[in-house]
Write a structure and sequence with these properties.
8 helices, 30% helix, globular, 325 residues, Fructose-1,6-Bisphosphatase, Chain A, domain 1, binds manganese (II) ion, alpha+beta, 8-stranded mixed beta sheet, binds 2,5-anhydro-1,6-di-O-phosphono-D-glucitol
Length: 325
């Protein structure tokens, strides 16, 4: 990771990075939609308690989880931004049963799959939360429908996430590159603050919900025992914030299958694939314990997957412990 000589704005960065590459035709509009939605949402999050938009809507989503008011607001905010971008043909969202389509002109050449608000249990208690986006090229030769979104994560062309934390950061990954932008709260403009991010060699942290121990297989118990040695446990309960810390400081995150979450807890298309893509571009790995997450051909948009995510050596060690048990 290096500090850029000057804090380019996101539009300036896009101009220098993507303008000459046909592969990223229109990506700047998709990223603008994310940054604009993040700015709007950041204000709502900071003001949530005073504005009376904390707590639940009283509804249950397609995941079987209680919907928080900010889950619904963030979903609506980003859906509108992607529609307005004129570049996104379809959005699949953790909070919405069926994907939403916006158009099929040649300009509508992207698909976005998103978790608009990650870390719902932390909204009401002033703890870091975030938003996660997998960005795909639309296959213009195929009909656009929900089934056409069931592609392996390796086909993503970019991924991005936002952490609304002690400051608000936007991290963008494209093939071989991971860059971080920090929001100026006065203007909503995102400025480049770290470029060419790679996992550090040191691995001070591991992140796991220890309360699940009694439901793990022996292999997972042994793998986590191996991680404990000399490392500090850090578990926020917002995947995106745990991931960001481990990316910058070094470490690994795991939420494996257990006797209660038999397919794992986290969502393949909205959480595992996008963060897995970022992890790989930063020199790390992503696995379900057996195979590379990004190689899974999905059978369902809302499906879950066991997730091991982070430093390459640690992901490998965990895989080996699972295999040998
Ligand atoms: P979401 O808020 O999008 O439903 O995701 C919550 C996820 C993830 O952010 C976090 O890592 C995990 O749930 C925490 O689960 P536990 O409370 O079971 O540890
Ligand atoms: Mn989530
Ligand atoms: Mn969510």
């Amino acid at each position: 990771m290096t500090s850029p000589p000057q804090h380019l704005t996101l539009p300036e960065f896009c101009e220098s990075r993507y303008e000459t590459s046909g592969l990223y035709d229109g990506l700047e509009s998709v990223l603008h939609a994310i940054s604009s939605g993040a700015y709007a949402l950041e204000k709502q999050i900071r003001n949530g308690n005073l504005a009376g938009i904390l707590g639940t809507t009283g509804e249950v989503n397609i995941q079987g989880e209680i919907v928080q008011q900010l889950d619904a607001i963030s979903s609506d905010t980003f859906v509108q931004e992607f529609k307005d971008s004129g570049r996104v043909a379809m959005v699949g969202c953790e909070e919405i049963e069926h994907p939403v389509s916006f158009g099929e002109t040649e300009k509508h050449n992207y698909i976005v799959l998103m978790d608009p608000l990650d870390g719902s249990s932390n909204i009401d208690v002033a703890v870091s939360i975030g938003s996660i986006f997998g960005i795909w090229k639309r296959d213009q030769q195929k009909a656009l429908n929900a089934e056409s979104l069931l592609r392996p994560g390796i086909e993503q062309v970019a991924a991005a996430y936002v952490v609304y934390g002690s400051c608000t950061v936007l991290v963008i990954a494209t093939e071989g590159n991971v860059d971080e932008f920090t929001m100026d709260p006065a203007t909503g403009m995102f400025h480049l603050t770290s470029t060419d991010i790679k996992y550090p060699d040191k691995t001070p942290y591991y992140s796991v919900n220890d309360g699940n121990t009694a439901r793990w297989t022996n292999g997972i118990v042994q793998a986590v025992d191996g991680l404990r040695n000399g490392r500090s446990q850090r578990y926020i309960g917002s995947l995106v914030a745990d991931f960001h810390r481990n990316l910058i400081k070094g470490g690994v995150f795991l939420y494996t299958a257990d006797t209660k979450n038999i397919d794992g807890r986290l969502r393949l298309m909205y959480e595992a694939n996008p963060l897995g893509y970022v992890s790989v571009q930063a020199g790390g790995e992503v696995s379900d314990g057996i195979q590379n997450i990004l190689e899974i051909t999905p059978h369902e948009l809302h499906q879950r997957a066991p997730l091991i995510l982070g430093n390459k050596e640690l992901v490998k060690k965990i895989r080996e412990a699972i295999k040998s048990s």
